[in-house]
Amino acid sequence: MTVALDDSWRAWLHENIERGCSHETMVAAMVGDGFDPEAAATAVRTMLSGELPTESAYRYDPWPVADGRVVQAYDREVYALLRLERPQVILFDNVLSSAECDEVIALSEGKLQPSTVVDPDTGQPAIVAHRSSANTSFRISETPLIDRLDRRLSALMNWPLENGEGLQILRYGVGEEFRSHFDYFPPDQPGHTTQITVGGQRTATLIVYLNDVAAGGETVFADAGVTVSPRRGQAVYFRYFNARGQLDPATKHAGAPVLSGEKWIMTKWMRRYRFP
What are the tens digits of pLDDT across the range 9-24? Predict the structure, then answer.
């Protein structure tokens, strides 16, 4: 069941989500004000997850990242090498130093586990054939190094630190890949409800390349005709959630198979609301 919300109800939902009110509390309040229970639950879920990307053409609004060639990102100057308007993609250089890349890899090597995805039906982590890699993650500001990087990447993405997921580190060996996928949670898949009830929908991604890959391992935006080759210290940013709550299907992307050597990346995902 769908329900049309007026601006006052949208504002009410937005305010209460930012305050940290639970999904259940907001639904109960709406039902108490006369909403059908199913319609209220759908309205809250839609506010958290965003609209289906097929419902209307995605509207590109101004992105939050600073304009210009040089961006001051907390403690470091970062350089914008390329900006693509549709979809919104930026290639950055000098995001991490070589020494920082090595430190992150060293911190992660002993913690790696097989990578998972969110099962679209159950919402639980699942190991799947189309994502073959190993990964680990860090809590926000878990160590002095991670704290510095969390603050730098949040400043670069111009999004609140508290809205970010913890840094995820991934290693791909020869033949390993991540086939075409969205980073946001498609709202038509029931398993994603559990992911968006805390923090809401993902809004943007930053992939930082921690090493030079001998061959393969590119990040491929097939619909946009854009391929980014991994280079140590560089990063690719892309945004897929606009101010209207729409999701941009043109940000579907893939991590191409590694053909020689290995690939290490660090991923930062941002949410619409505070993420615990």
Answer: 878 887 888 777 888 8
Q: If you ran DSSP here, which 8-state letter would residue 191 be given? A: G
What is the SS3 assignment for 109-151?
HHHCEECCEECCCCCCEECCCCECCEEEECCCCCCHHHHHHHH
- Residue 200 CA to residue 153 CA, distance in Å, equals 20
Distance CA 254, CA 210 (A): 18
Helix (H) or strand (E) holding 39, with range, is helix 37-49
What pTM, to 2 d.p., does this model score? 0.88
pLDDT in the model for residue 44: 83
Write the CB contacts of 66 (distance below 8 Å, at least 6 apart in sequence).
72, 158
Could you give the angle at which helices 98-108 and 144-157 cross, rounded to 10 degrees? Answer: 120
In degrees and rounded to multiples of 5, residue 77 shows phi and psi of: -85, 125
Count of other CB atoms within 10 angstroms of residue 273: 20
